[in-house]
Amino acid sequence: NPDANSPSPTAELGNNPAARMPSSASGKSFSNAKRMALEQANAGKLKEALATLSVFYNAQDLTYEQQTDLIDLLDALAREVIFSQRHLLDVPYVVNPGETLEQVAKTCNVPLSILAKINGLDEQSALAPDRKLKVLQGPFRAEIVLDRSEMTLFLGELYAGRYPVSFGDEPTARPGVYEVQDKQRDRNYYSANGMQIPAKDPRNPLGGYWIDLGEELCIHGSPAVETGATNIGCISLSPLDAGDVFGMLGRGSQVSIRK
Questions:
Q1: Domain map of the chain by residue range?
Q2: Contacts (Cβ under 8 Å, ≥6 apart) of 107
Q3: What is the distance between the alpha carbons of residues 37 and 49, in angstroms, rounded to a whole number?
Q4: How many other C-beta atoms lie within 10 A of the C-beta of residue 45?
């Protein structure tokens, strides 16, 4: 999850020591890619640097040092390229007379909330004609790796952040490719035995965020208070991370789950 207080991508790229000499082909390729990404970042081509390194996210043969290095660089680059107000993904979008932020979001195929957040606007803000907005061409997609208890978000082929997840058995997450069917804030929780916990109850396992993947699977938040319950829910994120992911995944976003 990109941290706003971290150093700039160029500084972070430059400050990272060279990775240890890898024994694998992908490790050697990463070393070359890192050098290329450093050159791209120093030339101001941060989107290109992010693209260069994003392809290594799931590489199997990197050393521990290389993997750590890669994640640090990806987080720093994603923070600037995707989540800052800098126009690094595309040219600025010029608002048409009478156009709303919601209309712009639909045009870009991203949720209204992420577009508002990146541009520092309220979701209901009136837009002045000819105002320039940072836009993202969506949709975002997610990959969940069960063995790593980790969710990674991508914007197209660009890495956009990773989040720890936990799993319940209501139902158990199954490998496959799913699509976001619906999403809701503040949803009541119903257990298999018929117990109900109201949406605003701090013990609610959904934690205020619910993303329906179909086939009874869902991604959700977590209770605001410690309940001691285990195996409750399906695919759970921390309260803060749930808000971030809810803001990025929209109806139609692909979510792949693998071992």
A1: 9-81, 93-133, 140-258
A2: none
A3: 4
A4: 15
Please give the full DSSP string across 153-196, using - where no structure is assigned. Answer: EEETTEEEEEEE-EE-STT---SEEEE--EEEESPPEE-TTS-E
| Architecture per CATH, 140-258 | Beta Barrel (2.40)
| One-letter identity of residue 199 | A
Task: Collect all residues with Cβ–Cβ distance below 8 Å to 67 and sequence separation of at least 6.
Answer: none
Q: Quick one: pLDDT at residue 18? A: 38
Instruction: Give me the sign of the Cα torsion angle 82, 157, 256, 9.
Output: negative
Q: What is the pLDDT of residue 226?
A: 83
Residue 44 CA to residue 202 CA, distance in Å, equals 45
Which pTM does this prediction carry?
Answer: 0.88
Q: What is the pLDDT of residue 1?
A: 54
Pairing verdict, β 140-145 and 132-133: unpaired
Strands in 166-167's sheet, in edge-to-edge order, are: 166-167, 235-236, 217-220, 209-214, 182-185
